[in-house]
């Protein structure tokens, strides 16, 4: 009897030590995250206009990459059409400004709702598709998008697109607005997802992905999980599109081709499907900077781009497991 009590005390002590170690790791990660955000906030004081503009685009692209990674992690599916939801957010902001004269801070939540609604509209008829079939269905969306935008050119502005010119934060220069608003969006999305990962809803989605029959027995229907995943992922993508349109000041069909969706998937792979801010930033930097760095390479661009992708992915996978888990923001 006494040995059983002693064993129980040992187990309890081990559990307490494990919880304390986990709490310490979380505090350390949060501290590093705060320092990183402060560094990014101070960067415009030393960086020129080119870097401020480029990093603003990078932050918006990082949010779009998170949206793809969210679908992979919680839905277990790959999308080759997330450019559609990014475009939905971008055009919502541009059209709300054009026809209603409202700035980004008003149109941003509208864009998120439009994106989530589109996600549900797409996910409902395709809720029984998975794997390569769902990927092809999303690719069909991406292929059709430019033609749809051009067909309604009287509204969308056709090839010329629509400009986004209104200030979102009066009193702050346009250059700094294009930097700080995408940064604020990235930080907010990362924090919200960090809390979401600890919620019962996240656990239900993960259970539905890993053990659908067990999830059904607990009352979690797979169709509900699929709709929820796609709606949240599409909503995040629309937020990215809204901030991207503000940072680039314009939206046009050429910005949302099939390649846009493919590059978002590539960025998600480079980030190791991370939902953390740091991991998404790596993907965003790759997505934004690599085409600029290879701009003068002519016909060598696809080869060098592919080589760079291989180096990044193989290099990340060569890291110790603990480092990779940290970059990925922990297991979902």
From TrEMBL:
Pfam family, one: BPD_transp_2
UniProt KW Hydrolase keyword: no
Compartments reported by the entry: Cell membrane
Example of a GO cellular component annotation carried by this entry: plasma membrane
Signal sequence residues: none
Principal location: membrane
Membrane spanning stretches: 29-47, 53-72, 79-96, 102-124, 131-152, 179-196, 227-246, 258-287, 299-319
Keywords carried by this UniProt record: Cell membrane, Membrane, Transmembrane, Transmembrane helix
Molecular-function GO term, any one: branched-chain amino acid transmembrane transporter activity
Record's bilayer topology term: Multi-pass membrane protein
InterPro entries: ABC_transp_permease, LivM-like
Name under which the protein is recorded: Branched-chain amino acid ABC transporter permease
Organism: Pigmentiphaga aceris
């Amino acid at each position: 009897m006494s040995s059983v009590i002693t064993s129980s005390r040992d187990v309890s002590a081990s559990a307490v030590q494990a919880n304390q170690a986990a709490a310490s790791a979380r505090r350390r990660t949060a501290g590093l995250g705060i320092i990183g955000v402060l560094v990014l906030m101070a960067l415009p004081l030393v960086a020129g206009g080119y870097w401020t503009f480029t990093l603003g685009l990078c932050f918006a692209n990082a949010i779009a990459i998170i949206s793809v990674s969210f679908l992979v992690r919680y839905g277990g599916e790959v999308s080759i059409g997330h450019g559609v939801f990014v475009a939905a957010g971008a055009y919502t902001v541009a059209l709300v400004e054009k026809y209603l004269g409202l700035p980004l801070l008003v149109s941003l939540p509208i864009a998120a709702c439009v994106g989530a609604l589109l996600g549900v509209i797409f996910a409902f008829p395709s809720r029984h598709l998975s794997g390569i079939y769902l990927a092809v269905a999303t690719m069909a969306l991406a292929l059709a998008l430019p033609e749809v935008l051009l067909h309604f050119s009287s509204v969308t502005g056709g090839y010329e697109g629509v400009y986004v010119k209104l200030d979102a934060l009066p009193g702050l220069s346009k250059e700094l607005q294009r930097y700080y608003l995408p940064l604020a969006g990235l930080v907010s999305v990362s924090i919200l997802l960090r809390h979401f990962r600890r919620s019962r809803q996240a656990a239900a989605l993960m259970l539905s992905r890993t053990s659908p029959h067990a999830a059904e027995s607990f009352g979690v229907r797979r169709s509900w999980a699929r709709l929820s995943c796609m709606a949240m992922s599409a909503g995040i993508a629309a937020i990215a599109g809204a901030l991207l349109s503000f940072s680039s000041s314009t939206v046009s069909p050429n910005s949302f081709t099939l390649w846009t969706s493919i590059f978002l998937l590539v960025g998600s792979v480079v980030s190791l499907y991370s939902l953390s801010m740091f991991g998404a930033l790596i993907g965003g930097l790759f997505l934004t900077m690599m085409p600029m760095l290879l701009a003068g390479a002519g016909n060598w661009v696809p080869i060098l781009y592919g080589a760079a992708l291989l180096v990044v992915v193989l290099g990340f996978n060569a890291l110790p497991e603990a480092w990779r888990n940290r970059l990925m923001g922990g297991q979902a």
